[in-house]
Amino acid sequence: MDIIDRLKTMEEVFWENPNLKAFKDVELPISIEDVKEAEKRLERFSSFIKSAFPEVKTGIIESETIEISKAKKKLEELEGKPIKGRLLIKRDDSLPIAGSIKARGGIYEVLKHAEELALREGILKETDDYSIINSDKFRKFFSQHKVQVGSTGNLGLSIGIMSAKLGFNVIVHMSNDAKQWKKDLLREKGARVVEYESDYSVAVEQGRAESDKDPMSYFVDDENSKSLFLGYAVAGLRIVKQLDKLNIGDSPIYAYLPCGVGGGPGGVAFGLKLSYGDRVNCYFAEPTHSPAFLLGMATGKNDKISVKDIGLDNITEADGLAVGRPSSFVGQMMKETLSGCYTIEDERLFKYMKALYESEGIFIEPSAAAGFLGAFLTSEKLENDEVIHLVWSTGGSLVPEEVRKEMLNR
Ligand SMILES: *Cc1c(COP(=O)(O)O)cnc(C)c1O
Question: Could you tell me the pTM of the whole model?
Answer without folding.
Answer: 0.97
